[in-house]
Design brief:
Helices cover 44% and strands 16% of the residues. By secondary structure, the protein is an alpha/beta fold.
Amino acid sequence: MKTAGGTKRVLLRDIACATGFTVNTVSRALQNKPDISKSTCAYVQQVASEMGYVRNTLASSLRSGRSRTVAVIVGGVSNPFYAIMIDTFHDLAEEIGYTVLVLCSRDNAEQERKAILTAIGRQVDGVLLFPGNEPEENIALMRRSGIPFVLVSRRTDKPDYDCVVADEETGGYLAGSHLLKAGHRKLGFVYSYNVIFSLRQRIDGLMRAAREADIPESDVSLCRHQNDEQLAAQLCCWKSQGVTGLFVFCDIEAWQLMSLLAANGMSGDFSLVGFDNIQSTIHFPTPLCTVDSSMGELAKAAFQILVDRFQGDDSPPRSLVFPVSLVCRGNCRLSKTE
């Protein structure tokens, strides 16, 4: 029995002792089984609640073979992109009586491996993975474990597993075209994330837009930055070279870049386009032109594929690509000084 200080877990036998029913009747009443009267179910559940009973889901999963939990492994929850996707997965899981276990990899292969092992150890029914760079060994680990999984937002070149992604190359093309149509003739691409598929595809799209506009390849510059000092120095250099339009890898990096520009007296020197369309869900006060990556549709598809898999679907792997679109919020234009 639980003490007054709540130091001992309440068990079914404690509820049985308090109500006078057998442990089996208590168990079935807590699950609203049809062979137990509604009044008995209500009474047992009330007593269980008053005693502080919490169902042992691990024990239940061992009996049923299902934990009714899915793991979502993301780079980090400080990025609103991941937060929005996690919220969507949570709502979808709630609809079918599932819970979501969120784990962070920091886009590091070893931490990603530990997160996968944690998910497997917790006996989750499936994994939704936003992989970092070089994920092949971790994909192989999930395959060996037999756990259903879907890669979300990123994939390798020739996926032979379930994955859902946005049309990254078209996204890069739309971002570049948008800046060029706004009058920018020298462009820069800024990124700190070095992730599979997405990075190369976005750059390829940007370069395609430049070629179609007869912009020399030398007038499209790339910068992977490690810290603010390095990035500020690169921006000063680009400013002297006449770069005015910046495509930034994702929205959160674009807003961080805006703050950096303001701190270094360069707020009016560059126009930015991001990627993700975070402002479709979170209304940040600073408008940002961006590429909408169909986050909601992508998340729903990934979740449904995973559910299908742990419910027995053994059809060939699905690789889905979702359309993107350009959202203009007016910050793409050349500055007044141009």
